[in-house]
Amino acid sequence: MVRLQRSNTNKIEDADIVVIGVPDESRSHAKRKGTSRAPDVLRIASNESEFFERGGKLIPTCPMRGEFEDKRIFDAGDVASKQELRNMVSDIVSHGKLPIIIGGDHSLTTETLQAVSGAVGKKLSLLYFDAHPDFVSSTRNYYGSVLTDSAQSLNLRKSMLIGTRAAEMEEIENARAAGLKIVNPLDIVELGVRRVVKMIKARTAGSMIYISVDLDCVDPASAPGVSVPSPAGLAAIDLIYLLNEVISDGKVVGIDIVELTPDYDINGMTATLAARILSECIASV
Fold first, then answer.
1. Going by DSSP bridges, is the β-strand pair 57-60/51-54 parallel, antiparallel, or unpaired?
2. Is the Cβ–Cβ distance between 129 and 162 less than 8 Å?
3. ω before 104 within 30° of 0 (cis)?
């Protein structure tokens, strides 16, 4: 198994932040396959792009904001099943630790939302960064029905879809009926990221927050290696800014990064971006 070099503790008991890989795409309907290979590809990208070797020493790079000092990080490796994922996430959150899950297809978010909500005993605010709402209700238990399948764990009136631009009408209608706020890339261009941050903080006030990042929320010019790319997406730096601002407030109880599809990547640019997103999220805690 590949291990994140950012992992700096050898026991999960000693960690504040636990990274879990989910090499599973069993609930994906995408024509592009390969998200099951993503966890180790992301780890390799992190190890290769965020460390320098000089004089026999391994030198880590620093984040743009936040810090890694005093962060106790444990790479728990990969889980073998969704049930193992659910049990592990529940235990991690129950012990006051932050799980960061790297997928795999987006259906893993259903498992983690249920586990986190159950562990904290509350419905969660969800910030769902995705080109697609994943709010199909006519078909269930797959990567396009995550919000439908997770509804019992969520306060949708205190949740947001961000980066949405490839929605089915069924999903738009479901979002409207649920009172779910949608912010598309045009909104971000028009309002600016600082205004969007204020909207996020106002909407999620008083709630525990779960963040889910489908890499297809980013424009495919920067992230081509995803299972269902859609043009006119978010700028990578805008995404990282939004994540930094939300995570640094200290209300986030779970994060996932999903849908990296290595076979369709170009020069590893999507994997390297995913690694940067992971590191900036950790540094922002």
1. antiparallel
2. yes
3. yes
Q: Report helix, strand or coil for 208.
A: coil
CATH 1.20.120.350 describes domain 12-284? no
pLDDT in tens, 112-161: 999 999 999 999 999 999 999 999 999 999 999 999 999 999 999 999 99
Q: Tokens for 119?
A: 């562990």
CB of 142 within 8 A of CB of 118? Answer: no
Give residues with Cβ within 8 angstroms of 275, minimum separation 6: 42, 43, 45, 46, 49, 50
Q: Measuring CA to CA, which residue among 127, 146, 244 is closest to residue 194? A: 244
Q: Are 160 and 200 in contact (CB under 8 A)?
A: yes
Q: What is the mean pLDDT of residues 248-267?
A: 98
Q: Which tokens in the block code for residue 104? A: 């795999």
On whether the CB atoms of residues 111 and 86 are closer than 8 A, the answer is yes
Give me the residues paired with residue 154 across strands.
124
| Residues 89-92: contacts with CB under 8 Å, at least 24 apart | 89/20, 89/115, 89/116, 89/119, 89/254, 90/115, 90/116, 90/118, 90/119, 92/12, 92/18
Burial-class residue 47 by CB neighbours within 10 Å (0-12, 13-18, 19+): middle
CA–CA gap between residue 140 and residue 107 (Å, rounded): 10
Distance, CA of 262 to CA of 224 (rounded, Å):
9
Question: Are 213 and 239 a contacting pair, CB within 8 Å?
Answer: yes
pLDDT tens sequence across 173-219: 999 999 999 999 999 999 999 999 999 999 999 999 999 999 999 99
Residue 26 makes CB contacts below 8 A (sequence gap 6+) with 105, 107
Please name every residue paired with 51 in a beta bridge, in sequence order, or none if there are none: 60
